[in-house]
Amino acid sequence: MAAKRRRCGSLARRAKHEKDPYVQRARAEGWRSRAALKLEAVDRRHRLLRSGMTVVDLGAAPGGWSQYAARRGLRVLAVDRLEMEPLDGVRVLQCDFSTDEGLRWVEEALEVGAVDVVLSDMAPNLTGHPSVDMPAAMGLAELAADFAGQVLQENGIFLVKVFQGEGFDAFRRRLAASFSRVTVEKPGASRPGSREVYLLARGRSV
Ligand SMILES: C[S@@+](CC[C@H](N)C(=O)[O-])C[C@H]1O[C@@H](n2cnc3c(N)ncnc32)[C@H](O)[C@@H]1O
Fold first, then answer.
1. Which residue has a Cα nearest atom 26 of ligand 1?
2. Within this chain, do residues 9 and 49 fall inside the same structural domain, yes or no?
3. CB of 117 within 8 A of CB of 94?
4. Cβ–Cβ under 8 Å, residues 65 and 36
5. Distance 109 CA to ligand 1 centre (A)
6. Low-confidence residues of the chain: pLDDT under 70
7. Which residue among 56, 61, 95, 99 is the one 20 to 30 A from 86 at the CA level?
8. pLDDT over 70 for what percent of the chain?
């Protein structure tokens, strides 16, 4: 009985996913994930990305954000602990960014000192328990912010996924201390009922 209920639940989720207009649009436009439409929306709104910029995309698989950045003419270093299919114009690095070794590999892969943009769409494997998931997600956002603080050049841009709840305001204040503008972004493709938002920090001061 329980197995049947689980199967029905997952079929219903699948049907909902298939009907999602962002899933349909992402497919029609050849994006690897509907997440690409989130970055596109933030970029169009704020005109962030310019050809020739160097971007590090943390939590990149399956590659929608990297694909979007590469199509816009940026040099992309894509990092994920999962394997990711190669993409034209994108250097892919498979490692766990939360380990010292992973971080060292990313730093070594950065041939140019100057990074213009750090993106992080990293998300932990969710357990469904907010008391576990929220600190895990915030931990990844903090790691990405530490990295952005080390590698971004002056006026650099940082876009990071966060979940609203405990720790959110303190994290936002942390970014406001080292960037001139911090805004909360909720692109249309981010599910309305979810706590997921993105913090966009611009004007890095060094
Ligand atoms: C929401 S998905 C990213 C989707 C991606 N932005 C896109 O456009 O296709 C989150 C990703 O974060 C990655 N991730 C989570 N923790 C990570 C870690 N510690 N190191 C590297 N990648 C991580 C996951 O493997 C997953 O692929």
1. 59
2. no
3. no
4. yes
5. 18
6. 1-9, 112-113
7. 99
8. 94
pLDDT of residue 15: 79
**Which token pair is 121?**
């769409």
- Which element (helix H / strand E) includes 143? helix 130-151
Residues 65 and 143 in one domain: yes
Residues of the domain holding 6 = 1-30
Q: Can you say whether the dihedral through the CA atoms of 170, 175, 180, 185 is positive or negative?
A: negative
187 lines ligand 1 (CB under 6 A): no
pLDDT in tens, 108-121: 988 756 899 999 99
Q: 71-77: long-range contacts (C-beta < 8 A, 24 or more apart)?
A: 72/43, 74/49, 74/50, 74/116, 74/117, 75/112, 77/106, 77/109, 77/110
Whose C-alpha lies nearest to ligand 1, atom 24? 59
Site to probe by mutation for ligand 1, drawn from 31, 66, 67, 81 as the one with most ligand atoms within 8 Å of Cβ, is 81
Shared domain for 65 and 107, answered yes or no, is yes
Same domain, yes or no: 42 and 7: no
